[in-house]
Amino acid sequence: EDGYDLWLRYQPLEAEAREKYRPQLRQLVIPGSEQSPTLKAIEGELVRGVGGLLKRAPGVSAGVNGDGFVLVATPKASRDVRAQNFPVHKLGEEGYLVRSTTIRGHRGTVVAANSELGLLYGSFHLLRLLQTRSALEGVSIESRPRIGLRLLNHWDNLDRSVERGYAGQSIWDWWNLPDVLDPRYTDYARANAAIGINGTVLNNVNASADSLTPRYLAKAAALADVFRPYGIRVYLSARFSAPVEIGGLDTADPKDPDVQRWWAHKADEIYRLIPDFGGFLVKANSEGQPGPQDYGRSHAEGANLLARALNPHGGVVMWRAFVYQQDNPEDRAKQAYSDFVPLDGQFDDNVIVQVKNGPIDFQPREPFHPMFGAMPKTPLMMEFQITKEYLGFASHLAYLGPMYEEVLRADTFAEGPGSTVAKVIDGSLHGHQLTGIAGVANIGSDRDWTGSTFNQANWYVFGRMAWNPQTGAEEVARDWLKITFSNNPVVLTTGQDMLRDSRQAVVDYMTPLGLAHLMATGHHYGPGPWVSDLARPEWNPAYYHRADKNGIGFDRTSEGSNAVAQYADPVAKRFASRSDVGDDLLLWFHHLPWDYPMTSGRDLWEELVHRYDTGVAEVREMRAQWQSLEPLIDAERFDKTARLLRVQEREAQWWRDASIAYFQSVSQRPLPEGVAPPAHSLEHYQAVKYPWAPGH
Ligand code: BDP
């Protein structure tokens, strides 16, 4: 097994499970499947899935005529489903139900929904029941997504390089599109539909205007055609200056009528080619990208320009809030809020503002972004990073489920207790219909899609939490392990331990106690806490840790940058309090003396060293755990994971040694008793350079 199959891995279940399920899955009834590409896809998937898992494919039949049927239909398409009087009104456009029931004396299972897309999601859920060995007998499931736009964001360039991609090249072969349609495109759509993802932004947010030229639109349209039966809509990152670059205008000013006309015509052209085109994602006035501020206009004026072009066609604008200005003396963590919160109420109805989970940039741990909850009149969508730019690329094992869960469950208190981030983005807190969540994809041309088997879990958990942000990381981990490896209880308990602790391990050996952005320059791989000479202050690790002989940490209380004031009370008070903030975010919000007494009984310096040691120990443990599973995992996937864990152990040690060497040079404090000194001198670690690193 090489990992290509992802969660569409339909290897035969254990004999006992096959025997149990076979009589329940004899016959497949999908009325109308000849005419509809989506129904045909469902039929194909169920025949293949059930056939693989049970080593016996169900017969396809025009009507229910025996026990063990699976009837997949909307009430509209099937009298048998209508007669059941299911509460389909509760399911919305994309929801579904899976019920065991009796039809004219025959026992079987119905998948019902209001739309074919709902049926597709329900059918994948049925397959998941088998893959996780759940009972079909008496099953009664109702499910609908809580979030409308569930998207992947590809940071893929037209030359097939992938910004922050660690799994090979882009899967989009732009050169040969639209003529050559790699079967991978279909498998991509299947894999995403299986976890409820319903849209994809094909190109990098650092966008080339070429993506909007007729040549490339035809290519995007070909992909849209492949994805359509699976409910995946295509979106594009739009470069704000495109009217100048490819439109021949001399300005991209949102107030200019020619610019407005240009975007309107561009939208018309796109919708002629892609009638269900989703809309634009825009990175503007951020890290050198063009934007409305180049013309003295606000982010809202920029977003509304594109929104008005898309509006007649039903498209949306996802306007990113990831902005920080050059030469702005303000704490970088405060800038997005300062720019955007005053614009609340100024965005058109088809604009949604896309906010990263934390105020800096996809660090191993950040507090939730203060914009969540702070813009009641504006729909906000979440941007998570699935690709692990700051967590050891595809090489280190870190399951991001616990991180996503931590953010989604964080309570903003914006409307009193219970105002979680999840409720902000599912629209329930402030009554928004337009809702969304995006994950920056970790997908590439590697055979296993994501550079390692365990990285697949991050794509998987993103989809599951996008469907329902209340979903627990542990529950998803268990499902994923069952589907990906086996139902063996030892694999499950050991695998769950590994997944649960893996992200905290990374936090401990890279950025413990609320530290952030200590990675080496540019590529962000490996330690670089000493870096302090880059052109912009907020690119330097030293800007973030602020360590000197007296102490360490970023004072974001009212004595310092006062970033805490961007949070609602009592969150602001908690973050501002040294004793209440908790160890996890301590140095994010506070600058403290090295001898500050920690709750552990150690002082801050000793605690920092202790955390680095803990991180290394956790990786060592994870590696031993994986080793113990050798007899229970297929050779190819076992071996690759084992080798990567060896890399991770070596590099966790590197992080620990380099960080301790550096911070000790600053703190000038002795190592606590019994602690091993770093293997090399600080100069040795500072001299480590890569001639090349992926994804940069
Ligand atoms: C940072 C990445 C950079 C992205 C940027 C963004 O280092 O490559 O372009 O975020 O999100 O994390 O726009």
UniProtKB/TrEMBL annotation:
One GO molecular-function entry: hydrolase activity
Domain Glycosyl hydrolase family 67 C-terminal: 450-674
Keywords for this protein: Carbohydrate metabolism, Glycosidase, Hydrolase, Polysaccharide degradation, Signal, Xylan degradation
The UniProt record lists the keyword Hydrolase: yes
Domain Glycosyl hydrolase family 67 catalytic: 130-449
PANTHER family listed in its UniProt record: ALPHA-GLUCURONIDASE A (PTHR39207:SF1)
Protein name per UniProt: Xylan alpha-1,2-glucuronidase
Organism: Microbulbifer celer
Species classification: Bacteria, Pseudomonadati, Pseudomonadota, Gammaproteobacteria, Cellvibrionales
